[in-house]
Amino acid sequence: MPRQRDPRFSKRQLGRLLRTFREQAGKTQPEVATTMDWSVSKLIRIEKAAVGVSTTDLRALLAEYGMHDPEVVADLVEVAKESREQPWYARYDAVTSEPFRRLLAYEGSTAAIHQFHPVLVPGHLQTADYARAVLGSHYSGVDLDLAVECRLQRQYRFESDRPKMVALVDEAAVRRTIGGPEVLRAQLRHLLARSAEDCTTLRVVPFTSGAHPGMGGGFMLLELDDEIGDTVLFEESVGKDYLATGDSEVVTAAWERFLAIEQLALSEADTTTLLRQLVES
């Protein structure tokens, strides 16, 4: 299914457009707030995407800014409706952290993903059985079923509209028999199939590379589409995960780390050879 923009980004897009329209109309926030009989803080929150805007208020704002084109108004009303919907991952709150839910929100607007994991096959590339074995160390019963469902739904949303993905994994990730030999073998076959796709690059960092900058934990860099134009870092370490956006030092350092790890990885052809050997062993 085609990916849908997350409601929080629809809200951000709408807020940015409304601010642009106000400025083009030559109006200040206090002036508009007075005309609309609002507090200035309400308008500020709408423009900053801190709150949504009703379709009634939206139509009134657009009229105030001289925006009367029926097509433009209809498009923005649709964006406003989208911004007030529940995101697809809302039903998985019990098995996801807030930083991870923010990551899922960003993924709806992702043009490219660069990621590394020192121990596991990345979630986007996991089979259902492998995912269940991994998540089974954290959840059980209904929560385990929900966590697996969330992981598969996340993959499904990329099914017909996959971003470019460059995945680096330590050799430990393709040798560790998570779920048992047959589950791992099926996982490796799946990696071979995915790595044959034009949009997916998979490379293994061999044991012979010794110590490397990725040994501290897995991380993911998301390049967002042109409409948002930002880079997001999601990093996991023991008991901690967080996001950082923009050109901050932490994101720059993560890019440098990724490139350093990439220099140590096997070529795509050698990675394919290794995976085939492991499947046949």
TrEMBL record:
Q: Which PROSITE patterns match?
A: HTH_CROC1 (PS50943)
> Domain HTH cro/C1-type spans what residues?
18-73
State the InterPro entries in the record. Answer: Cro/C1-type_HTH (IPR001387), DUF5753 (IPR043917), Lambda_DNA-bd_dom_sf (IPR010982)
Any GO molecular function: DNA binding
Pfam families per the record?
Answer: DUF5753, HTH_31
Q: What is this protein called?
A: Helix-turn-helix protein
Question: Which species expresses this protein natively?
Answer: Actinokineospora cianjurensis
